[in-house]
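Ticket reopened. Same input as before:
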Amino acid sequence: MLGSIIYSNPTKLYFGENSIDFLKEELANYGDNVLLIYGGGSIKKSGLYDQVVSILKASGKEIFEDAGVMPNPTVDKLKEGCLRAKEGNVDFILAVGGGSVCDYAKAVSVSAHCDEDPWEKYFLRMEDVDNKIIPVGCILTMVGTGSEMNGGAVITNHETKLKIGHVFGENVFPKFSILDPVYTYTLPQYQMVAGFFDIMSHILEQYFSGEDDNTSDYIMEGLLKSLIHSAKIAVKNPTDYEARSNIMWTATWALNTLVAKGKTCDWMVHMIGQSVGAYTDATHGMTLSAISILYYKWIMPYGLKKFERYAINVWNVNPEGKTSLNIAQEGLERMEAFMQEIGVVLSIKELGVTEEMIDGIVAGCPIFNGGYKVLDGEDIKEILLESMK
Amino acid sequence: MLGSIIYSNPTKLYFGENSIDFLKEELANYGDNVLLIYGGGSIKKSGLYDQVVSILKASGKEIFEDAGVMPNPTVDKLKEGCLRAKEGNVDFILAVGGGSVCDYAKAVSVSAHCDEDPWEKYFLRMEDVDNKIIPVGCILTMVGTGSEMNGGAVITNHETKLKIGHVFGENVFPKFSILDPVYTYTLPQYQMVAGFFDIMSHILEQYFSGEDDNTSDYIMEGLLKSLIHSAKIAVKNPTDYEARSNIMWTATWALNTLVAKGKTCDWMVHMIGQSVGAYTDATHGMTLSAISILYYKWIMPYGLKKFERYAINVWNVNPEGKTSLNIAQEGLERMEAFMQEIGVVLSIKELGVTEEMIDGIVAGCPIFNGGYKVLDGEDIKEILLESMK
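Engineering reply: fixed in the latest deploy. New output:
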C-alpha cells in the first residue's frame, strides 16, 4: 500500500549535452565564496576542471579548493573539508565528480558548521541537522549513486572499520545538478559497469520490500527494463549517447525518493556491501554485485510471489507450465547471466576479502527490518562465505 | 532520445488518508486573505467544506469564496474569479475539487493581476506570465487531470466555441497539493471512470510520440500497467483504498512533466476531445475515450513498431507467430475491451454530438506536430464521423 507520503524534491536538474551552459545562471543565486570539491585528476585530464574554473571566475567567484576526494570518502577527509569550508567562509559548495564527491560535498555542507564531531552526530547517532547548511550544487561525471538528487551521504571510518550512510532531509538535497551524459564516457569500464549495478541494486532493494505491490513497483519494473536494455548497449559502445543518457536519467530516478514511496526497504545488500567496502576499499557497485545473487537466493523463499513477478515482468520469463519456484529461479538465472554479460564481480574473494575478515564484516554490518526476511549475523555470514567460493 | 531536459517540480505532495492534517502547517506560509475556490455542492455534502473552513478559521484566515466552478470552467467565470481575488486582495488561493477547480484556480492566479484581457493574453496568444501570480494550494477530490502537480489550466469560451489549455511554468505550479484517496470515493461512477481514462490518455499521448524510445517510455508502461490493474478493481469496488490510492498516485505522475521528458507529443486526442467538449460540455475524459480507439487505429500505420511494443509490454499480447500488424491490432483490441469493461463512452454520438456540429468541431481543433502523423482537418473529420457510427 502506498500509505502516507510526503513528496517534495527541490533539486533542479539540467540534463543533456552541454548542460553546463546553465551553471553561470545558477551560480548567480549564491554568494561569492565557493568551495570547489573534486576527486582525483580525471576532471583535469578531461578539461572539465578548466571549464568549471573559468565559469566560476567569469561569475566573479572566489574559489577555494578541496581536491582528492577518494572513492570511499573518509572521516579524516571530511574534517579537512570542514576546515576548508570554514577557512574560506564559503557560501556555496560545487561538487564535480561522481557519487562519492557529491556524497562528500553534502557531508561537508552539514558538518562545516557543526559544533560537535560530525561523524558522531550525523553518522554514528544519525541526528537531524540543526546547524547552518551550506548549499550544494553538483556536476556529475559518473552515474550510479543517485546522490545528485537526494539527501544521502556515505562516509567511511577506517579506524573503526565503519562505512555509514545518512539520508538527510530535503534541505540537504543539491540545489541543482548538471547531468551531461558525455562526461561519463571517459570512465574506465570497471567503474562504469560497477555504477550500472549500483543503479540496479538501488531499484531491487526497494522493489523486493513491502507487504504488497503498488505503483512504485510498476515504475521500478520500467526503470529496470530501461537500465538492462541500455547497459547491454553501453558495455559494447560506451560512447553511445542514447544508452548513456538513458542510464544517467534512470540512475537519478532510481534513488531520488520517488520509487521508495510505499516501500519499506531494509537495504541489506547495501549494508553488507558497505561493510565489505570498509574492509577492502573495493568499488562500491562491485561489493553489491558480489553478494546480490546469493542474497536474493537467500530471501527468495520469503517473497516468492514477488520473485515470480520479477522474473516475468522484468526478465520476460515465460511462466507457462512452470512452478512459482522455477519461474523465480529462472529470473535470478537471467539476472546472473546479465551480470556476467556486463562484467560485474560475482565473488567477494575477487575484491580481496579474506576468511579472516568475514567476522569483522558481519560485525560491521547494521541490520534493518523492512525486507522479506530480517537477516541475522548467521545469515550474513553464510551469504559472505558462499561468495568466497 | 532524452535530449536536453530541465526538470524542476516545486509542488509538495501530501498524500494518503487524513493528509489534510498538513493543511494548517502549509497555510502558515501565506498571508491572511484566502480565496476558497470550489465547484458545486459535493464538498458541502461530504463535510470537506466545513473541515476546510474550520482549518482556515483556526489559522486566522479571512475567507473569500468563489464557488460554482463548472466542469469546463468558462471565460466568464474566470473574470468573476479575478474580480473576487482583487476585491479580497487575496494572498493565497485554496482550490478544493477536481482538475477543473485546480485548473481554474491557476487561471485566476495568473489572471487576477493581468492588466489586459487574460483570455486573450494567456489563452489565445499563449503569452508568458509577466504579472504578479497569486500562490495556489490544492485539495484534490477527484483524479485524472494531474492539475495538482503541473502548470496546466484549460478554459472554455462558449461564445467562440473554443476550449484552450495553457501549460504555465513552474512559478504557476501549486505550492502544495493534498491528495486523500478517500475523498475520491463519493464521485459518481461515470465521472470516476472518465477520470481513469483521462489518466490513460495522458500517458498514451506522451507514449505514442517521439522519434525513439527512452526511459520515459519504460516508466509510462509501468504507469499504464498500474492504472489498468487498479482501474479494474476500482470499478467493481470504488472504496478499495489500495486501488484508489494507486490510481491517484499514477494520475499525478502521468502528467507532472516527468514522463514527457524526451517525448514530443502532439496531444491530438486532447485537442479533438476538447473541441468536442466545447460543443457538448461533455465530461472531459469521455470526449477522449470516444475518439481514442479510432484515433489510434488512424495513426497506427505511422508508428507500427511502437504499437507492437505497446501490445506486448502493456497488454501482454503473445507475439509468437504473428505479424507486427496483427500484434499491434490485438493490443488495441485489448485496450478497447478494457475500456468496455470499465464503462467509458466509445462514441461521440453518445455525448450529444450531431452531424451539424462536426465541421465546427474540426475548425475549433488546433493541430500540432510531434505525433507519428501530423493530422489535417480531413483526418479529424474522418475520425469524428467514424465515432458517430
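The longest helix of chain B spans residues 215-236. Chain B has a mean pLDDT of 96. Please confirm and we'll close it.
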